[in-house]
Amino acid sequence: MISTLENKFTTKDAVIGVIGLGYVGLPLVLAYADKGLRTLGFDVDNAKVVALNEGRSYIEHIPADAIAKHSASGLLSATTDFARIEEVDALLICVPTPLGEHFEPDLSYVVNTIVAAAPYLRAGQIVSLESTTYPGTTAEEIQPRIEERGLVIGKDVFLVYSPEREDPGNPEFAGVNIPKVVGGTTEDCLKAGLLLYGAAFKATVPVRSTQVAEFTKLLENIYRAVNIGLVNELKIAADRMGIDIWEVIAAASTKPFGFKAFYPGPGLGGHCIPIDPFYLTWKAREYGVHTRFIELAGEINRNMPRYVVQKVMEALNAQRKAVNGAKVLIIGLSYKENVDDLRESPTFALMDGLKEMGAEIAYHDPHIPEIGPTREHMDWCGLKSVPLSAETVAGYDCILISTAHKAVDYVALADWATLIVDTRNAMVKAGVIDNPKVVKA
After folding, report:
1. Which residues are catalytic?
2. What is this structure's pTM?
3. 202-247 pLDDT, tens digit each
4. Which end of the chain is more exposed for a tag (fewer CB within 10 A), N or C?
5. Domains along the sequence of the chain with CATH
6. Of the candidates 158, 44, 155, 31, which has an alpha carbon nearest to the alpha carbon of residue 91?
7. Using the 8-state DSSP alphabet, how is residue 139 labeled?
8. Comparing C-alpha atoms, which of 337, 331, 336 is closest to residue 387?
């Protein structure tokens, strides 16, 4: 079976299937199509399928030209029909792994996907899970459901885990330029996984098992979550002492060893960092381990929107204004700068918190003209971005910078606004220094 797969990848006859055509899955199908391999995308969202087949993009930083080119050539197509899984030689699963109400892992998307796919699996295929999850998921949730089909892992089907590593909006590290960690259920599974990812990625990193690969992704994101939690806590302490934490970080960053800069903000966003650490805390309890650093960092980061709302209240009070009835314009809705990604954005928590205190909320985001349906924030669905001008800004009591998009003219904003609460140090970066209208939060 391995030799057959190797020949298919060598001759570019291998067909790559990807389930889940979002921020992870869509770049994957394009990466393989770029290498001349036919790709077939699967998604339950018919709108995405139609868009791809028509050569259109629904993710801002992914150009439509790249999709249209491969769609026209026949290298890229998409479907909602899981029966077509029989056509592919490799199946990559890229579906969400959110948290439940009590911060427990929600593997329903993963389980439902493999249950739906399993009837159409055949001998000679590679199956790879890319969704971030706790160590043991591939072995405990994916493997048994494939074996129920009578397929032998390592002989008939080659099962691997390879964590997605996407950073939307990062021009330096994107897609195939990021080394790909690959763990296999057996030695032959690993060989197959390296064939699969070596066909598209510049570098692969083999590890001993799927569990090691699963833990690797959690370590990467826990590292960031804990350090962001640390700097967020230090920001609050520095603020109480009258010290600018951004100046402190800039000074510490001049040390050429032993220090890596992390930056504070209004909270954590994105699908990975706010969520992934809790997959490990949940699994660790099974082994009697209490992951205190992870849980403390999570608590600090979740509380940051409350801190920012408090700073807005204090800033308005200093101008003899109440939050109740104040008009607040939030700059930046996406969870990070220069992208249209709303997943787990802390801006929603800011909007909710200020609304609860009686404020009237509007937002400006050049990347998100209107808020669409979301799982947790349907109350804001349909709200449209407000254009920035001297006239519009003058109508707000406070401008709150939540995400610092490059497209915003912060110098002009400083001229137009009467009060700016800045959670990202955007004003200083734009050259607006020691402006009494600007409050750092």
Report:
1. 272
2. 0.91
3. 999 999 999 999 999 999 999 999 999 999 999 999 999 999 999 9
4. N
5. 2-209 (3.40.50.720), 250-440 (3.40.50.720)
6. 158
7. I
8. 331
